[in-house]
Amino acid sequence: NAFALARYNPDGSPDTTFDGDGKVLTDLPGGEVINAVVVQNDGKIVVAGRAFASTEDFALARYNTDGSLDSSFDADGIVLTDIAGDIDDGRAIALQTDGKILVTGYAENNTQDIVVVRYNSDGSLDTTFSGDGIQTTDIGFHDDIGNAIKVQADGKIVVAGSTGSASVQNFALVRYNADGSLDTTFSGDGLVSTDFAGGTDQGYALALQGDGKLFVSGYATTSNGMDFAAARYTADGSLDATFDTDGKALVDFNAEFEYGLSAALQADGKLLVAGLIGFDIRAGAVARFNPDGSLDSDFSGDGKVLTQVAGSEDIAYAIALQPDGKLVVAGYTDSEGWDFSLARFNPDGSLDETFSGDGLVITQV
User: Fold this and answer.
1) What is the pTM (predicted TM-score) of this model?
2) For a tag site, which of 154, 155, 164, 274 has the least CB within 10 Å?
3) Three-state SS string across 151-210, please?
């Protein structure tokens, strides 16, 4: 495996100013996976994931705007961080306003614990965060994983993910003070666990509302199988009863498994969740909620959109909103092997045919 990036023009064509062909591959020691990407205000691109050295470690790379590695970031553009376990996986990344970089994920050494690492803008560990730049949080169960991270306007740091065992898992939400300590004003101890239906619940994505409320999406195991799941919390960590009456909402696409893997918040307060649904064949899926937790019928008539890009396995991993209200969903498809895929939708959920002619782009990296 190698780190892989692609950059596109607004019409969906490859941006040839990015490494000549719009694509960049970076080999690190062993196998590498990018799980998250963020763009700095200066246009530089920071990615986070994992790489295998003697063990699997958090891995970061920073690129200049032309796709070359940024030598001002730890001298070669690449940073590896061994947390404490056999497997350390960086799942999500966020930028602070001062240029510092936050990465969350997990460290596994018999059990899995949520990890947050803060780096200075030059790639060094920020020792003002938890003393050594690394904060490990054991919620109390066998498997604790951080899948999403955001920074509030007040500097507090919120991580969403899951906690539990192999058979029973809940949404997990953790809030830290700016120095890395747990924020005890959040649910009394900084930790929140949310059960949907007694089975396997995983929180994958996090969005912060302007009023301080927090929106988490993922999936929950119900009697119907696995459904898109969403929860909204007030600023103190309690479930928000104005969201679907109990703070929790489920969306059933009538498939065997349904994973909500990413989320975005519109300016009008509507909430988008993207992921995949499937039986033997998988399709990309997007759902849009009204602010009260109901599905938005203005979005494709029923609040739900399914997209088969090219193959029998299409997965939507990430969603982003454009200033004009259009939404871009990225993932992969198995059209001719595993390829990057993009889809752009109009605000009503229809595919935007000004994007590559049919709203879809496939890239073999």
Assistant:
1) 0.95
2) 154
3) ECCCCCEEEEEEEECCCCEEEEEEEECCCCCECCCCCCCCEEEECCCCCEEEEEEEEECC
